[in-house]
Design brief:
The structure holds three protein chains of three kinds.
Chain A lengths: L2 H34 L6 H16 L6 H8 L12 H22 L9 H23 L16 H11 L7 H23 L1 H11 L1 H6 L4 H27 L8 H12 L4 H21 L1 H4 L7 H12 L14
Helix pairs in contact in A: 1-7, 1-8, 1-10, 1-11, 1-12, 2-4, 2-5, 2-10, 4-10, 7-8, 7-10, 8-10, 11-12, 11-14
Chain B lengths: L6 E2 L5 E2 L2 E12 L2 E12 L3 E5 L6 H9 L6 E6 L2 E2 L5 H5 L3 E3 L12 H7 L9 H6 L3 H19 L15 H14 L4 E5 L7 H18 L2 E5 L3 H7 L2 E6 L2 E6 L1 H5 L2 H8 L5
Parallel strand pairs in B: 5-10, 5-11, 8-9, 9-10
Antiparallel strand pairs in B: 1-2, 3-4, 3-6, 6-7, 11-12
Helix pairs in contact in B: 3-6, 5-6
Chain C lengths: L12 H4 L6 H21 L2 H27 L7 H18 L5 H20 L7 H21 L12 E2 L4 E2 L2 E2 L7 H24 L1 H18 L4 H28 L1 E2 L1 H4 L2 H14 L4 H25 L4 H22 L3 H15 L5
Helix pairs in contact in C: 2-7, 3-7, 3-8, 3-9, 3-11, 3-12, 4-5, 4-6, 4-9, 5-9, 8-9, 11-12, 12-13, 12-14
Classes of the chains: A mainly alpha, B alpha/beta, C mainly alpha.
């Protein structure tokens, strides 16, 4: 087999893995959008905040330490304990649920029935607020996250492919684990949305807030539930990305990357988010591999958006979205 | 094309030749046939009602008349000429204006601005002139303002001319929509359920306005309406639709006594 | 009691459609203009110029541009940063290629170039709506930043990848670089801001503005009454991008002097201008200025109070700024979606009745 093709296969596989992680973030978006018609720009920041909280909790950081020190002149930083990963995750999850409740009560309860673009801008405001809050609580420096997930090159794949192709594929263990976790999460979420009473209520709310209210669906409960689930998805995504590249600001930019994923897959389709993520993941990496060197590299910055843009021009509802029929 | 000289109505008004003719119109949306092989005409100066049960395809018919929907089969003749498929914004330039079943006003603007949008097809000063607010742009603005103010006077909505439309009650919104349609000085006015959601007084006012428009400006009017009293009083001729087909076409008295129409729609009064 | 309109009648449509029909408003407006043009140049210094007046004036122009596109025409754009970059790089190439031509001409031409680019990236708006469009504008944002980073022709093959503003003067007064005169730079930007506001005001109160607003409020109905959606949307993109391009050109040429495109014109710039028009008021020229003023003054205020006054470290102040801005966006969207401009209008209404309650 020609060398270029072998490299291409490796790039393709890595692209699939990246795609799975994109899909994971996109899932959080789809959930909230399905339930509330809100496109939650803050999803990426939520992932960052979740990861930061996890690290902070595990390492016994004192929240707002920097602020307290500045006001009171003290020098405190840590409580002095270290928590195991599972306990940390549990505590972080509780924080995310409280956050969901607060966001619901303070913001979205007051924006019932508003146009989507207003809701979207509110989530941008929320994203900025949470970013400032996260930085203020836990400090803005880059942090290392280790919850015990396997990392580093998968030796079995390396050896096997070397024996077959004379070239060892570099596939990270972390990516494999992430894919499996993401697949399980997706399966659970799809079943939840389709087959449970709460899932149905969620879909009703996504269609029409007022109508759902009139048939007795508690908007508040559904929204808190959905934002909590999105918070959980954000936490998982935050853990994956954070383990891979450290917990830092750039984590929140994945939110931006999820946008073209959603545009491809449609905003309301869970399988669409997955497939969209895979397409973008593979597409990005292959494009950079094949065309990147010719035009200066770093095409991953914009390829996903241009691809999604082109697709939208021909099919405004995405690959899986519902066709919007406007009547007058 | 045969455009004869028209006829005289029961109360002595003269109705002109055919201004709009729909021939064998069939309209489908995917698998649904909304209109099936319908032929009728509208004459100049008359008030033509389109009635029928819900879902009969009346609004779709109105959209075909205005040119917003292009039928899969059949032809439309406007003023004697076959009308080619038009883009929606080209339709307005023909001199056809309409109001909508669910109000389609511009909620971010005032009443006056909404009415002024009815004049947009007539306003074509250049960019520079507009940017500097001199010359043609300013003159156009004032001329069209005068026309709109006349319409506002005619419909008695002067006190609310600067009010944002979003604050108005339903009945007034309908009147503003009519004003916007009239501002374009149309030859053919299409009204989609102009009386919907109104009480008796409001209906009387609206009926008076519709008659005045037809009387003073000679505007041809086609309207969809469910209130039979209004239809019988206002219209010169009526088309009845049911399940996308035409089941009656004639004067109000003809329709009142048409068995098919009675069965499908009017019903019989039981004393 | 002093803000009255009794006795102040408009007897012609011409009078009624002025920008400031009430005499009191008009005189206040003239007073502000006099102060801005005749008083400030004499009292301005480098600090005030660079910390407050320049960013305020320049961002106001960008805000006016984005307001036309998003506030008046309803097309949400997250590409403002990228378009400002187009203006900056256009003016750079023009200034370096034609050093003898006046900088004012170059800035206007740069605006024109940006308008063309805006039309191209605006074409998808004919098929895509709402925040699908917003996401599509992100394509413009990221692609443009990448383009100016990677294609060396744009930065004249310099080793650093940065662009620097060459020295320019106007009738003997230096306008760019370290030796520029504060009052001259200020007046230059003030003139651009004032003219932009006047043009925008004229366009938005006439037929063009009504076409834009009709598309924003209900594009299908707008089409049916005769608005050509293609020309309305593309004209909004073109004119909006012109102003944004002028703003970007000035931002680079006379304010920063040197620019690295990723830092200066990244997505955060797009959000900043968007926040300005949300807080200031969508669909309002005054709101564009109000929002720009607010978001320029806030960090300055915070820094002076928190860092200078309370001794906080600067990064804490920055975090608090994020929280305040984000929080305010949410507050304004909930409580007053029409922004400061609406608050101002309501305040004036109350003032007209003062001292009577109603």
């Amino acid at each position: 087999m020609p060398d270029q093709l072998i490299y291409a296969i490796e790039v393709f596989l890595n692209g699939l893995m990246a795609g799975v992680l994109y899909a994971l973030v996109a899932l959080g978006f789809v959930l909230i959008y399905k339930a509330s018609g809100i496109f939650n720009y803050a999803q990426g920041v939520m992932a960052l905040f979740a990861a930061m909280t996890l690290v902070g909790v595990m390492e016994g950081q004192i929240p707002f330490a920097h602020l307290i020190n500045a006001i009171l002149g003290t020098e405190i930083h840590h409580f002095g304990w270290h928590l195991p990963a599972l306990l940390g995750i549990l505590l972080t999850m509780i924080v995310m649920i409280i956050l969901a409740w607060l966001v619901q009560r303070i913001i979205f309860k007051h924006l019932v029935g508003q146009e989507p673009i207003i809701l979207f801008m509110a989530t941008i405001g929320l994203a900025y607020f949470m970013e400032g809050l996260g930085d203020m609580m836990w400090g803005a420096n880059i942090k290392k996250l280790d919850v015990g997930l396997p990392q580093g090159i998968n030796l079995w794949i390396d050896e096997t492919t070397y024996n077959i192709f004379d070239y060892g594929f570099f596939i990270d263990n972390l990516d494999i684990v992430a894919s499996i976790i993401a697949a399980i999460l997706v399966g659970v979420l799809v079943m939840f949305a389709q087959y449970t009473k709460e899932g149905r209520a969620m879909r009703a709310v996504a269609d029409d807030h007022q109508a759902a209210l009139s048939v007795g669906v508690s908007l508040n409960f559904i929204w808190i539930m959905v934002w909590s689930v999105a918070g959980f998805v954000a936490l998982v995504a935050g853990i994956m990305w954070g383990t891979k590249s450290g917990v830092q600001f750039s984590l929140s930019l994945i939110a931006l990357k999820a946008l073209p994923v959603l545009m491809l897959g449609g905003f309301t389709s869970i399988p669409g988010a997955i497939i969209g993520g895979l397409i973008i993941g593979v597409g990005e990496k292959l494009f950079e591999f094949l065309v990147g060197p010719l035009i200066g590299g770093a095409t991953e910055n914009w390829f996903a958006y241009v691809l999604a843009l082109l697709l939208l021009v021909f099919r405004p509802q995405g690959l899986f979205g519902e066709k919007i029929i406007e009547r007058v | 094309m045969n455009t004869d000289d028209g006829y005289i109505t029961e109360d002595g008004r003269k109705i002109g030749g055919v201004v709009m003719e729909m021939k064998n119109i069939t309209l489908r949306f995917g698998g649904v046939t909304a209109i099936q092989d319908i032929t009728f005409d509208i004459r100049e100066g008359e008030i033509r009602a389109i009635i029928g049960p819900n879902g009969a395809g009346k609004s779709s018919m109105l959209n075909v008349v205005s040119g917003f929907y292009v039928p899969q089969e059949g032809e439309v003749f406007f003023r004697g000429e076959k009308r080619p498929p038009l883009k929606p914004f080209e339709v307005a330039r023909q001199g056809i204006a309409r109001t909508f079943q669910n109000i389609a006003l511009f909620e971010g603007m005032s009443v006056l601005d909404n009415v002024m949008t009815g004049r947009l097809t007539q306003m074509n000063s250049g960019f520079i002139s507009q940017a500097l607010w001199r010359g043609k742009a300013e003159r156009e603005e004032i001329e069209n303002r005068e026309i709109c103010e006349r319409v506002i006077d005619f419909l008695e909505i002067q006190p609310i001319r600067k009010t944002p439309v979003s604050r108005l009650p339903y009945g007034l919104k309908k009147r503003v929509e009519l004003a916007r349609a009239l501002a374009s000085e149309p030859k053919l006015l299409l009204l989609d359920e102009p009386m919907a959601g109104m009480n008796v007084e409001e209906k009387e006012d609206m009926s008076r306005f519709i008659l005045d428009v037809n009387d003073e400006f000679g505007t041809t009017i086609a309207l969809i309406e469910h209130d039979m009293g209004v239809v019988m009083d206002l219209s010169d001729r009526v088309v009845v639709m049911d399940y996308g087909k035409k089941i009656g076409d004639g004067t109000p008295s003809d329709i009142r006594n048409n068995q098919a129409v009675i069965d499908a729609y009017l019903g019989v009064s039981h004393d | 009691m002093f803000y009255r309109e009794a006795g102040d009648f408009s007897t012609t449509y011409r009078e009624d459609s002025q920008t400031f029909p009430i005499k009191f408003d008009r005189y206040r407006y003239y007073a502000v203009l006099v102060f801005a043009f005749a008083v400030v140049p004499f009292i301005i210094n480098d600090y005030w110029l660079n910390a407050i007046f320049l960013p305020f004036l320049i961002y106001s122009i960008a805000a006016i541009g984005l307001n036309i596109l998003t506030g008046y025409c309803g097309q949400v754009s997250l590409g403002t940063g990228g378009f400002m970059a187009v203006g900056a790089y256009a003016v750079y190439k023009l200034m370096t290629a034609f050093p003898d031509i006046n900088i004012i001409v170059h800035v206007i031409l740069a605006g024109g170039v940006t308008a063309l680019v805006g039309v191209i990236f605006g074409l998808p708006s004919l098929r895509i709506k709402g925040f699908y469009l917003a996401v599509a504008t992100l394509a413009a944002q990221f692609f443009l930043v990448w383009l100016f980073n990677r294609v060396p022709w744009f930065y004249n093959y310099s080793a650093s990848g940065q662009i620097t503003s060459p020295e320019r003067e106007f009738f003997g007064v230096t306008l760019t670089g370290a030796t520029s005169e504060p009052w001259a730079v200020y007046l230059l930007c003030l003139v651009f801001a004032t003219v932009s506001a006047l043009i925008a005001r004229n366009l938005t109160r006439g037929a063009m503005g009504r076409r834009w607003m009709a598309i924003r409020d209900m594009d299908i109905a707008a089409e049916i009454i005769g608005v050509n959606p293609l020309s309305a949307k593309l004209s909004a993109f073109a004119i909006s991008s012109f102003f944004v391009g002028v703003s970007g050109a000035l931002f680079f040429a006379v304010y920063l002097g040197a620019v690295e495109v990723g830092e200066v014109f990244g997505i955060n710039k797009s959000f900043l201008v968007l926040f300005m028009i949300i807080i200031g008021g969508l669909g309002s020229i005054f709101g564009s200025f109000a929002g720009a003023a607010f978001l320029v003054l806030l960090p300055v205020l915070l820094k002076n109070v928190l860092v200078g006054g309370f001794g906080w470290p600067t990064d804490l102040a920055a975090h608090l700024e994020f929280m305040i801005v984000g929080g305010l966006i949410v507050v304004f969207l909930i409580a007053e979606p029409h922004g400061i401009a609406q608050l101002w209008r309501v305040a004036k209404e109350k003032l007209r009745l003062w001292p009577f309650p109603h």
